[in-house]
Fold this sequence. Notes:
By secondary structure, the chain is of the alpha/beta class. The chain folds into two domains: 5-141, Rossmann fold (3-Layer(aba) Sandwich); 147-402, no CATH class. The protein contains 15 helices and 13 strands. The protein has an eight-stranded mixed beta sheet. A five-stranded parallel beta sheet has the order 2-3-4-1-5, sandwiched between helices. The longest helix is centred in the middle third of the chain and has 24 residues, at 187-210.
Amino acid sequence: xxxxxxxxxxxxxxxxxxxxxxxxxxxxxxxxxxxxxxxxxxxxxxxxxxxxxxxxxxxxxxxxxxxxxxxxxxxxxxxxxxxxxxxxxxxxxxxxxxxxxxxxxxxxxxxxxxxxxxxxxxxxxxxxxxxxxxxxxxxxxxxxxxxxxxxxxxxxxxxxxxxxxxxxxxxxxxxxxxxxxxxxxxxxxxxxxxxxxxxxxxxxxxxxxxxxxxxxxxxxxxxxxxxxxxxxxxxxxxxxxxxxxxxxxxxxxxxxxxxxxxxxxxxxxxxxxxxxxxxxxxxxxxxxxxxxxxxxxxxxxxxxxxxxxxxxxxxxxxxxxxxxxxxxxxxxxxxxxxxxxxxxxxxxxxxxxxxxxxxxxxxxxxxxxxxxxxxxxxxxxxxxxxxxxxxxxxxxxxxxxxxxx
Length: 405
């Protein structure tokens, strides 16, 4: 088990504070383990286990908790001793409980419960819930393992310890879903597991939640987005593609399906930002899978065609570091990622190799006309390159992923 320190350090300041701690992220990304790590830290601080009330809606024993009344009754029975120091409530996959927010809001109002919940859908905190719980919750979105976390876990179970190159190839292919480390990294079994995650998210967090009727069309759209990872995409592009297959779907419906996928955390969206005009552009977004392994599940793996995966990995990395990410537009040029967090900002270009064709000229040229003081990097798989050109630095992608500062 890897200690998810980058998330724990953000949650710790809210231990024993009168706000609901909401942990969100795609299914199987490690929310349950993180919740357990929070419990372990509280127990280590001296909190007695009798004051812990834990509910995991993915376990059969909690099938009887269907709605907010069941939830209230369950918690009430286990806190009937009315401890003067209060209780700690942990609910995993809370969205499986109908109108859960009614009980959570009530428990918080009683001022004797410290509440931690997880969920697998961004609409867990819809505008209505945000109004009801306004000022009473703090959200932490978590992701599958970053490459540095992947190394920590993989090196405890692999004979490849210290061989970061081979392990990076594994990460590019299989991604960072934590449970993969229970497998022997056999290709067929790993792909089946990743496919099962995809199927679970599609069924539970998209089809059932949004009452999607044309399931086949949903799959076509998601496969199109996987094939076009990192490419500028519009709902009309997809509608035209579907039409070429002799099916029909309105761009508005395409956009709804994409939003369902974003809400389920299976897709990450990067909007375009006009650097010179300093404004977000409404159309032509890019989409990336929530984990590199989902690309493997949907499209297979071709070692000679890894450019998309490299972009996907860098996008994933910056999200795990807490950055918001957009795609930059400077005149006719494009910057792969503009990453911002508070007062921090950096620009990133990503490619397989700067020695191929005119890649070097193309990647560095994108920064022309940007004269601010924020760091600018070109990232590639090369093992050595001119490290500084007009203030733009080069780094090996693997080294960048491991250098979090």
